[in-house]
What we know:
The chain is an alpha+beta fold. It is built from 5 helices and 8 strands. The longest helix has 17 residues.
Amino acid sequence: xxxxxxxxxxxxxxxxxxxxxxxxxxxxxxxxxxxxxxxxxxxxxxxxxxxxxxxxxxxxxxxxxxxxxxxxxxxxxxxxxxxxxxxxxxxxxxxxxxxxxxxxxxxxxxxxxxxxxxxxxxxxxxxxxxxxxxxxxxxxxxxxxxxxxxxxxxxxxxxxxxxxxxxxxxxxxxxxxxxxxxxxxxxxxxxxxx
Length: 194
Ligand SMILES: [Zn+2]
Ligand SMILES: [Zn+2]
């Protein structure tokens, strides 16, 4: 699986080179890529390391001041395990997203990130700026999403409309009415899959 990831990463690198972005450029620093150890909901992440002192700046958010850096000498990209089962173009979309985080001033999803995301999406046919939708990406890759487990089923006694919740306030049926018909709810505790 690591080999497949390296291969797709190299494809991304070559595609970027063809549109004038050389990720081996010294302004970007060293990028390494691996498969995430923990299984998490996120598609991937990019850890910036070795900040370049001369690019230090202070950002103020409200009263607080944060020390930030525009450039880092080292970036560690991790792609989540479950993403590796998706279609190659969706995996590459994720890789491209994380590569942009390695560019100067792109560690967040700010203006510079967006500029690159638009340029690369436009030139190479990706859809990088979007937040991924796990379920639709799984389905596009012919994988059936695991159904979620819920502890409560709530049903309207009047119109029958029902939905599920993991947690439920004990006063729920007293405090809420059906949004569709105004009827009362009954709640059932158990194990539900939806
Ligand atoms: Zn991101
Ligand atoms: Zn109802």
